[in-house]
Amino acid sequence: xxxxxxxxxxxxxxxxxxxxxxxxxxxxxxxxxxxxxxxxxxxxxxxxxxxxxxxxxxxxxxxxxxxxxxxxxxxxxxxxxxxxxxxxxxxxxxxxxxxxxxxxxxxxxxxxxxxxxxxxxxxxxxxxxxxxxxxxxxxxxxxxxxxxxxxxxxxxxxxxxxxxxxxxxxxxxxxxxxxxxxxxxxxxxxxxxxxxxxxxxxxxxxxxxxxxxxxxxxxxxxxxxxxxxxxxxxxxxxxxxxxxxxxxxxxxxxxxxxxxxxxxxxxxxxxxxxxxxxxxxxxxxxxxxxxxxxxxxxxxxxxxxxxxxxxxxxxxxxxxxxxxxxxxxxxxxx
Length: 334
Ligand SMILES: NC(=O)c1ccc[n+]([C@@H]2O[C@H](COP(=O)([O-])OP(=O)(O)OC[C@H]3O[C@@H](n4cnc5c(N)ncnc54)[C@H](OP(=O)(O)O)[C@@H]3O)[C@@H](O)[C@H]2O)c1
Fold this sequence. Notes:
A seven-stranded parallel sheet has the order 3-2-1-4-5-6-9, with helices on both faces.
């Protein structure tokens, strides 16, 4: 099958995104819309109306559509996938929101269901958000979703499949995301909960492994992945993606104290943050550059990620306070 290359100037392309009410998925939607693509976003339950509200506040309603997909693991999606140029599948529960076993099960079943439906509807390309960012692929339950996707892709060369696996993802919420944060619900913060926890003097739960990425870079990687070249030319496309910059929680606390002195008294003791010999981890940089066109020197600096995240969290907190909510007590889900 011949895969047409396309550029951002081709504005009539139509992409479907799952998980659009999530931290990463909403950034993906925002970047697609900023690039003037058409998008169809799948959501469920009360998030359907919230997603419509969030997108309407920022984008013209003739460029997006929000549809209900109540269960990502089953159901006929053919009516929604007809004519779609590509899918970004970013819906899966984070381990910690549901128990780890359930999270893995939904991830695998959701990915395979979306891929099968995509093949059936002749969608040419799918980008799946991987739940892990290690290279090479680990054995056992942590690698099971990626393994299932890789095996599917090998059997179905009629569809082009990319796995994009961001490291711990932090960053500001995309404009409109406050619609999903109407009240203090730490689980709605996704991984930013770990940065929010840094605004607690008594916090001792600082992430124990190195490697991070700004959510804006993670979303950018997904969109670049829609643009080929295909696996038939470059081999399997599974990318662990991490910022090449030193991502140190100790540095983050230091820069927040310096640049946001009003928060100084709220901060976790920086000496509790672990020190590592390496603050990122090895990934296939040459392949990421050659295939995705994602340059190591284009990643957002850690200081900016830390400050923008804190500003975004403090803004959300201000909205909660205006409504009379207390600052939520620390409860670490991740
Ligand atoms: N955040 C990270 O550091 C990180 C790093 C690597 C990979 N990832 C992966 O990236 C993806 C998105 O993560 P995120 O940080 O954006 O998490 P998030 O903010 O919790 O968003 C998860 C999204 O998935 C949807 N979802 C969860 N379970 C679902 C189900 N059973 N059926 C349909 N939709 C479901 C959620 O919908 P509702 O809003 O309706 O619940 C939400 O839209 C996940 O696959 C995660 O494993 C995340």
